[in-house]
Amino acid sequence: MKIKDIIILALLLAVITGCSEKKDPVEQKIDQLISQMTLKEKIGQMNQLTGIGMADDMTNAVRNGDVGSILNEIDAVTVNKLQKIAVEESRLKIPLIFARDVIHGYKTIFPIPLGQAASWNPAVAESGARVAAEEASSVGIRWTFAPMIDISRDPRWGRIAESCGEDPYLTSVIGAAMVKGFQGDTLSAPGSIAACAKHFVGYGASESGKDYNTTWIPELQLREVYFPPFQAAIEAGAATFMCSFNDINGVPASGSTFLNRQVLRKEWKYDGVLVSDWGSIEQMIPHGFCADLKEAGEKAAIAGVDIDMMGYAYINHLEELVKSGAVNEKLIDEAVRNILRLKFRLGLFENPYVKEQGRDAFYTESSLQKAKDAAIESVVLLKNDNDVLPLSNNIKSVAVVGPLSDSQADQLGTWCFDAEPEHSVTPLTAIRNDYGTQVRVIAEEGLTYSRDKNANGISKAVAAARNADVILFFAGEEAVLSGEARSRADISLPGKQMEMLAALKQTGKPVVMIVMAGRPLTIEKEVEMADAVLYAFHGGTMAGPALADLIFGKAIPSGKLPVTMPRMVGQVPVYYSHKMTGRPAQNITLIDDIEVGAKQTSIGFTSYHLDAGDSPLFPFGYGLSYTTFKYGDVKLSATALGMNDELTATCDITNTGNYTASEVVQLYIRDKVGSLVRPVKELKGFDKVQVEAGQTKTISFTITANDLAFWHEDMAKRPEAGDFTLWIATDSSSGTSVDFTLR
Ligand code: GLC
Question: Is pLDDT of 1 > 60?
Answer without folding.
Answer: no
